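hey so i finally got around to running the thing on that chain from the lab meeting. sorry it took forever, my laptop kept dying and i had to restart like 3 times. anyway pasting the input first so we r on the same page abt which one it is
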Amino acid sequence: MKCIDEVPAGELYGKRVIVRADFNVPLDNSGKASDIFRLRKGWATIEFLAKAGAKVIVLSHIGRDPEESLAPVAEALKQLGKVVYVPDLLGVMAQTAVRAMTGGEVLLLENLRRDPRETENGEDFAKELAAYGELYVDDAFAAAHRAHASIVGIPKFLPHYYGLLMRDEVRALSAARTPQAPSFAILGGAKFETKAPLVRSLLATYDHFFITGALANDVYKAKGFPVGISVVSKELPSAEVLADPKFLAPIDVTVEQSDKQARVKKPEAVSGDEKIVDIGPDTVALIAPYIEQANFILWNGPTGLYEDGYTHYTQAIAELIEHAVARGAKAVIGGGDTIASIEESGIDESKLGFLSTGGGAMLEFLLQGTLPGLDALN
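ok and heres what got predicted. didnt touch it at all, straight out
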């Protein structure tokens, strides 16, 4: 599949190009975009097309509520470039705006999920959207695991291409499926039952594999350790996984007590009223040599409850990876909370290897090697 930058600029001039971006960013209490990481990563394709003189029509979704609006996204995009936002999708307002476009303009239409046919993968909806453009560019890697109309439907009706971000994501994550030895993988998050196949795959692919986040609670539970009121999955790691010599788990934990005070202790010492909220310093010391020696590092998921402010050890791991990349190691890092923790640390993102916009899409690609959105383009 071709990337859009392989198309001569002369063939893009004046063309109406639909760009499916993933601008599904978190909003703060005031309704403003609180993290523009995905916007920055996705802007490169839009800017490339606009500079080539194309008429760029951007489609995206936001949030879980279909009534949510992309207005805050349009406001945040002003930090990156000029965008005209139309709070409409298929109505007269949107159609008029598309017809009025001139070369180099960027038009952002309203939340795709305002129409239920988006998530239902309605072919008629995809066809109506496709009528806006002459070319289609999919740059929404973080949504490419969804078989939605704007992802898998529009390519049926228009010549289609990878966006710059989509191309870079596929290259980086393809490399992560065949890492250069010695390799080290870190997986956090929750719900072991959904991640069990990936855990087995990473154990088979990587020289060492470290499990953290709420997934580590499942390890303690499987070993018969107390976990207090911590989050535990429906499925626990098998004895085969726990016994794998490549498998590593935290050796100390940060717990939060009923009075909201935090302290570090051994996993076997967790009390019934305590909640495990992060790893501890001994665990960072445990995995440091693996990171220092690795030629390839894969990381998805913070070590602690990011939403409750437990980011210290996640940031400590980021610092270790920064040093590894400086000496020549390759790193691929993903997961929204992981990236947010890194951004808060002040570490220069360019010194950490490749930062993926994908959460679920990243994990599914690592397991399957493809995604519905990629199959539609290929």
